[in-house]
Amino acid sequence: MLWLLLAVLAAVVAWWAVREISPVNGLTFVSPEELHGPDTEGHEMQMLDVRDAVDYIQHHVPGAINISMGRLPYVHKTQLASEEPVLILAENSRQTKKAARMLKRYGFLRLYAPQSGKGAYGCGVCC
């Protein structure tokens, strides 16, 4: 009986690990040059910062909308337009993927995330 419990536990851990490292369909990683280049002229890019409000207040990208991960399922309809592209700003790639999976579930099709390391967009912490 113990081996069955261990096998189930190992399967759950393996599933979680695969899900964490696998890419999210529809999430595109972009460089700062791609965001500020000539191709983005005229396109409204919504910037979604999914960090907590305290972190957002300390350092954020001007124009970013702050909706923490816990609030995202409840307020995404009132704060974001699903037909417009969304740039997800998060503290780490795990949060980025989690937010992207949520938004995909709600019908958002054009999802983007910063490709470079921290500080690429001037906020100093999140991106």
Short structural description:
It comes from Paenibacillus dokdonensis. This protein has helices at residues 2-21, 32-36, 53-58, 72-79, 93-105; strands at 27-30, 46-49, 65-66, 86-89, 111-114.
Shape designation = elongated
- Overall SS class: alpha/beta
> Mean pLDDT across all residues, rounded?
82
What's the total helix number? Answer: 5
Proportion in helices:
40-55%
How many angstroms does the end-to-end distance come to?
A: 47 Å
Radius of gyration: 17 Å
Strand content: 5-15%
Count of individual beta strands: 5
Strand order of the largest sheet: 1-5-4-2-3
The SSE order reads HEHEHEHEHE
Low-confidence regions? none
Largest sheet: number of strands, sense, barrel closure: 5 strands, parallel
Give structural notes.
Helices cover 41% and strands 14% of the residues. It has a five-stranded parallel β-sheet with strand order 1-5-4-2-3. The chain has five helices and five strands.
What order do the helices and strands come in, and which of them pair?
Layout: H1 2-21, E1 27-30, H2 32-36, E2 46-49, H3 53-58, E3 65-66, H4 72-79, E4 86-89, H5 93-105, E5 111-114
Parallel strand pairs: 1-5, 2-3, 2-4, 4-5
Note the main attributes of this structure.
single chain, 127 residues, alpha/beta, 5 helices, 14% strand, elongated, Rhodanese-like domain-containing protein, Rhodanese-like_dom, Rhodanese-like_dom_sf, Thiosulphate_STrfase_CS
